[in-house]
Fold each of these.
Amino acid sequence: MTDDRNPLGHLLRDQERLTAIGRVLRKTSLDELPQLWNVLKGDMSLVGPRPLLPEYLPRYTAFQRRRHEVKPGITGWVQVNGRNTLTWEQKFELDVWYVDHWSIALDLEILWLTMLQVLQREGISQAGHATMPEFVGSSALKTGTK
């Protein structure tokens, strides 16, 4: 990605800053390979909820924070069930479902489905975004539910 900014000095949207090489890396999911180092260091697993930006932490509901009960992963239940075509609420639901249903068999299924997803190149981005729009919190956060 480039560091291009608008006249006010704010970064342009991801989609506008993504280079041609970046698009190829994103489409083929090769941009995820450097995270293998984090797996080798023990900071991440191959499978688990994808890590999100640290600035999102205060925006989580108690339910959404449950995704942190397991190590983050390079791929996860969200990635094989819609990836970035899902809403934030759907992603959190799937992450917590994974936490509640974790098993070695489930991880093996996710790894297999991930290989198929990478080959099909589906769900990489949400319309109008290089990946996903910013998570600003949910209506559940404002109402105190979930």
Amino acid sequence: MQIGMAGLGRMGMNMAVRLLRGGHEVIAYNRTRTKVDEIVREGAKGAYSLEELIQMLAPPRFVWLMLPAGKTVDDHIDEIRGLLHKGDTIIDGGNSLYKDDLRRSEALKAEGINYLDIGVSGGIWGLKVGYCQMIGGEYEVFKKLEPAIATLAPNDGYMYCGPSGAGHFVKMVHNGIEYGMLQAYGEGFAIMKASLYSAGLEFAKVAHLWNQGSVVRSWLLELAEDAFVKDPDLSGIKGFVEDSGEGRWTVLQSIESSVPAPVLALSLMQRFRSRESDSFSDKLIAALRNEFGGHTVQKE
């Protein structure tokens, strides 16, 4: 099927490539022309403005936005909504707050434009192994886009979650859980680092060992092994851990819903604390975020 992709960052570029390799027609736009030129070399058709992107798509159009959450998404929607026709669909595949989806879908519905929110997880590895996708919006619209969603996903790697906002809501909680998992691994390795056994322990081998049938095995431990092989003491990484918003939203949602979430809340607080010190646990969390998502790390 034909997809218009707006936003060719770490995720958007690789998603466009995976769609192309899956036999879909991709028309791609990015405000940086060199990114458009790059995806054209992969087989996409390039658009050098949002207006051109819409003009190159055949109705009913599917415009997939892979943009930073917040004002950037609203600005792009405002720019294209007047160019779209009844029955066209806008997809927000970024990490938007689900409450923004409710506002946007209602406004677009009044104009006859469909809106899907799709939480996408997979980081820089998604091109190779596929993207886990959590979809919100009208079910009939999801079914029309499903061939592209299925191409992006690994086996059993996508789910229709419910009406508008449901996809980004589930992705928000997913990222909140991620905060807690990263914090647990970081603290565990920090305890080993501070012990009298530290000199004899190779943390890459410990991470590898724990992935052989233990109850704490995970892809994150595979990435921890890779990070320790590259830098056994993580000496080249500063323990400064950013947060991209979803962890904060998850904690706020727990307060709004009166659901206790002490682990997630404290893991968020630890990220704030990391910006005032440089602990080994923070170094590992920063390293893991770089391994799975290509997130920037601060060098020593």
